[in-house]
Hints:
The protein is α+β, with helices and mostly antiparallel strands. The protein contains six helices and 27 strands. A hairpin with a 4-residue loop joins strand 19 and strand 20. It is elongated, with a radius of gyration of 43 Å. The N and C termini lie far apart (138 Å).
Amino acid sequence: MNGQPISGASVGTTRRGRGRGGVRLQALAAGALLLVLTACGGGDATDGAKGPEGQGAGKQENAASQAVVTILPKDGADSVATSGALKVTAQQGKLTTVTVADSKGTEVEGEIAADGASWQPTAHLSGGTQYKVHAVAKDAGGRESAKDTTFTTLVPKNTFIGHYTPEDGSTVGVGMPVSINFTRGITDPEAVEKAIKVTAVPSVPIKGHWFGNDRLDFRPERYWAAGTKVTVHLNLDGVEGRPGVYGKQKKTVTFTIGRRQVSTVDASAKTMKVERDGKIVKTLPITAGAPSTTTYNGQMVISEKYKVTRMNGATVGFGGEYDIKDVPHAMRLSQSGTFVHGNYWAPKSTFGSQNVSHGCVGLADTRGAGDGSTPAAWFYDSSIIGDVVVVKNSKDKQIKPENGLNGWNMPWSEWIA
Length: 417
């Protein structure tokens, strides 16, 4: 009997101990679960209360941009036209960046429209060239969408070039225009002229003028200032000058304007006054055109120099009136045969007293151009291509602007029209 109470007390103690232990284990388990839930939630109870809004904001930030970028021509396109084919547009967003470059990294200039919806190049593309396009647009939420493509332009079957003057690196007179003669007649002069840029330092407005469909000259309103540096950018590669005929030049030419020399021939007084940098440095006796073969009036530019050359009247419409094989110190003033040159066959008394030439301006000289002391030799040595020779008081008409490099005879208002 005594053993049962002892046994019962032992059992009761054991049950109570298990009960307390069970409460503690449950509390620990609950705490651990709360810790896990808190750690997974990434915040305290207050953050958890904003959970739905926070989750919604996170999804908005990670959503794809609504902007759609379209590039034409399509990726991988071949034989693409050099003008009018390249276009970049954006829908449901605005373009922020557009770069187009060839395989050498040379970028194509272009402009994004004010509304950000489109981009177009401001110049034509080169022929037979691969280009890479990279474009980026942003939607209303500031999210970016980008696109990259590659295409290749057509290889022209028919081409043209422009023969230009003056030469690269040369020093020329103040009357020298930039003159470009094209090997094919141009039917889209606007496209060709847009591809040629002429600039000067110090800066001065320079405009182009077409003579026919194969010659384009550039000049300022007045003669260049001495010391001016002129740069000509010929970006003709890829320009469609006429249907199916493309330019193939991409070249930069620079030249310098030397001292200012303007010589004035008075056909009536039979003299030539040589003015350099504002001062008359010499007055030379001359012989101008005879009454039946007068000399043109007007401003003429020296375009070529020959120490000795042949002059045959048959080449300029005079039949067989003369053929002189060794004309000394000759400088061309027109394409129709007007020169300033030495004359050894006329008596010395002719110069300054009579006009006997076939339209040229003659200066006293010796045969062979070997005497540097003659008036013709002095003027030849003192002149450079691009110097101006003005003829006045001749009983002839004014020379046409396109006859030689003589666009100065056209009023500026007509030149830029």
